[in-house]
Amino acid sequence: MFNDVAFAMSPPPGAEASNFDVFMSFFPLVLLMVIFYFFLFRPQQKKQKETRQMIADLKEGDNVITVGGMYGTIVKIKDDVLTLNVGDNVKVRVNRFYVAGQKDVIEKDAAEHPPAQG
Fold first, then answer.
1. Closest Cα partner for 72 from 91, 57, 98, 52?
2. Which of 3, 7, 40, 83 is an S-S bond match for 76, by CB 3.0 to 4.6 Å?
3. How many CB atoms lie within 10 A of CB 84?
4. Residue 103 CB: number of other CB atoms within 10 A?
5. Does residue 86 register a pLDDT over 90?
6. CA–CA separation, 11 vs 13, rounded Å?
7. pLDDT for 44-63, tens place per residue?
8. CA separation (Å) from 15 to 3, 25, 27, 116?
9. Separation in Å, CA 20 to CA 9, 27, 44, 80, 104
10. Are 43 and 52 in contact (CB under 8 A)?
């Protein structure tokens, strides 16, 4: 079966394959790579850039949510370690990169996109 397809794609006997034929054989592959870039890789890169910017912009007094789901207010920042006030005189130290986001931003996003009921 595949031999018939390969035979149909080959140039006629005595003729040489032109550069255009070679280009057209690679065109679908190139097109697929461009589609993957714009629909998969580019949005992921933008989201990573936004997350890095959010982490860099954290300051004392921000209400945040950690990756583990704890809500807290930043009371101290030292290098990559944040001290969060999570309750009455309860302070927790976490790495800066374990902050999932700012509380108000995440809650606003959750209100705009409620979970599906099923």
1. 91
2. 83
3. 22
4. 15
5. yes
6. 6
7. 999 999 989 999 999 999 99
8. 19, 17, 22, 60
9. 13, 10, 35, 55, 56
10. no
* C-alpha span between 112 and 99 (Å, rounded): 21
Q: What is the pLDDT of residues 95-112, one digit of tens each?
A: 999 999 887 766 666 677
Cα–Cα distance, 52 to 49 (Å, whole number) = 5
Q: Which of 88, 83, 90, 78 is nearest to 64 (CA)?
A: 83
Task: Decide if 70 contacts 80 (C-beta within 8 A).
Answer: no
The residues near 94 (Cβ < 8 Å, ≥ 6 apart) are 66, 81, 82, 84
Residue 22 to residue 41: CA distance in whole angstroms: 27
